[in-house]
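User:
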Amino acid sequence: MKALMCIAVLLPILSGALLPLFRFKKRLHREIYVETFVLAASAVVLALLLNRPEAPLRLFRLTETLDITLRMDGLAGVFSGLVAFLWPLSTLYAFEYIKHEGGDDKFFAFYTMSYGVTLGIAQSANLITLYLFYELLTLVTLPLVTHTGDRRSIRAGMKYLGYSIGGAACAFLGIMVLYACGDPALTFRYGGFVSADTPRRTLVLTAYLLTFFGFGVKAAVFPFHSWLPSAGVAPTPVTALLHAVAVVKAGAFAVTRVTFYCFGVSLLYGTWAQYTAMAFSVFTIVFGSAMALREQHLKRRLAYSTVSNLSYILFGVTLMTPAGLTGALSHMLFHGVMKITLFFCAGAVMYKTHREFVPELTGLGRYMPVTFTAFAAASAALVGVPLLPGFLSKWNLATAALAEGGLLPTLGVAALLVSAILTACYLFTPVVNAFFPPAGEGGHGLELARDPNWAMKLPFVVLMAAMLALGIGSGGLMELLSRVAAGTI
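Assistant: Predicted structure:
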């Protein structure tokens, strides 16, 4: 079973790298090739989740103490499962959407490779392996951000690259301190590997903030968030993955790893480093929601929403309790499903009508009922309507913070409430206008507007079913996440 970890990572990377060599003459043949390997990789991940290997798999050694090693522990299983579920749906959606973009071979080559690299981040057994795949993720997603090749996309790509390199440099400094003051192998271990009574306490706490903000760049924590709305110029299948699965969740996942599996909460809890990280997370929750409310471009509005919701996860992590981590992991999963649905809907509107701004959506619900039903369902879930998954994850975060007590956790709960109100405003407004336009408005120039074809609608249906299932039947999943947060699996 250990070999399956390597197969899961390498299968998408190699199949994506080899795709341009086949020079497919027919679009259908390319689509069959890509979807087959993506589904195969997801099937391998499913096999790993059902029969998780306990032992790590060393791929090769870098130095006497550092090696590139994979391991499927509980936290890796959570992230891998999310990625394996959403990537095939996103790929199917992309087949139709990318037809009008051009450059199909290049697009799907990097799109598929990004899947394998993201799984590499999820299954990393130590910090050096995670850092390697983390850097690779920047390189393989950069051509996706700049895919259209116009001035806006190139500028957005350079901004994304600059922020990512700067964040990685900060994280690397923190890693060097961990190497010197902790475990030279940098192997993930629940509880961390730095002694709580280390004589270099100030240095180590500073190193934690370097890794928090370094990896937090991809999680779009304030003030390192502006690359994310800018990256919205990329094709919607790319932004959906950037905002829901791959890049931003990789940042949140890396912060979780360094907090609970490298530095350890026994060292960090109650320190100025914890409070600083938590304060930035709480501020970003409200800041992202407020920016989303004032933004009229639909994809940029959803991007600022992602800025806010990623800090929900970081807030749960910085509580540094098992209950807080349970809330963070539940929101990591649920937000992925909700946000990718919203981006798919936004992309469908742009694809069929070329409308990009919120006021232009007025009356579209009548002409694109499936698209806007999915948008309404995902909006309700993200707001936190009971019986939908967003309510459950926000409840977990709020109760964990209230149980913790103190000024910052209490402010965090207030931030969650304010964010929920703002989220209702910036998501329900376009929904209401789409289905119930003011008298005399809407309908002009929409006679040809229609829902997209089955390849784009099928993900809507699957994701809506997933949201309903997660909302009303996630008892077993929550128990699993609680065990992961407690370090028992």
